[in-house]
Design brief:
Layout: H1 3-25, H2 32-39, H3 57-72, H4 77-87, H5 96-106, H6 133-138, H7 143-155, H8 161-178, H9 188-198, H10 204-219, H11 223-230, H12 236-248, H13 254-263, H14 268-283, H15 290-293, H16 303-317
The structure holds magnesium ion (MG).
Family: Belongs to the ADP-ribosylglycohydrolase family.
Binding site for Mg(2+): 56-58, 267, 269-270
GO molecular function: hydrolase activity; metal ion binding
Amino acid sequence: MERQRLKDKFIGALVGTFVGDTLGMAVEGYSLNQIEAEYGHIEHMLEARLGSGTYTDDTEMMIGVAESLIAVNGFDGKDMANKFITNLNLDRGYGSGTIQALNNIKAGTSWQEAGKYVFGNGSFGNGSAMRVAPIGVFYHDNYEKLKEKAKKSSLITHAHPLGKTGATLQALTVGYAINQASDSDFSVENYLNFLSKLLDLDSKEFSHKFRLINEYLDDQPNKEQVAKELGSDTRVFNSVPTSIYSFLANLNEFRDAVLYAINLGGDTDTVGAMTGAIAGAYHGFDKIPKDWLNNLENNKKGLDYIINLGERLFELRYNC
Ligand SMILES: [Mg+2]
């Protein structure tokens, strides 16, 4: 792939996370029916809790992942945990399990142990999948390494086996999307074969969802059925498959994929962020609608900073 194109995809995955998170923020926790009653079909950025164009914990933690990969030229759990702690702004809306794990680390627990007993056996929320895009980007040319690092990055806050699988699935999908030319026909069959070779999706939670994804791509059910059966709540075995389906069912346009995801309702900022990461990695930064980009916050760690993180990840990997 041409270098400029690859760089554009690196940036697309990071900014895609930001855009999807921001679009979903205003309706986080709304049901599909509530969204329809209040907004009809969401097509634009809405005024949100921290203002229009602002992001939530998803993007703030994704920034930490990217900053850490850049600082130590690869994955380092201790450094990444410290980046999360340094960046933590509770106004962005963090999950209670993540706060608990990061507090454990602040109190001296190692990053490998900090998330283990959150909610009993570790969290299987989507908090480690929502932030994982930079790992999919950084290790896109080595899927075994990508898997290993994604799993470890989840351990910091989401140590339950399902939490780790969800983050790995999301990271592999981002990495795979980076490697596909977006002007060619994307083969869903090849993608699903790729996943089955690399990831043990035999747990009943994930295998059921992938059966549904296959069915839905043929049947194209209505949004009510997708929201109800595939699910878009905070549990990672619901929201990651739903993000993947939102992408696969809307392969042609970044805009369509992200809007589809958000209009399902549920954990809209995170489903938006994860769909945006995959679609951004596939289409590239260039294909993210300018009317959305123009509306994003651009303060200290806003749009320009996130674009720069994508550029630096690229420079680091390709020695330029
Ligand atoms: Mg959020």
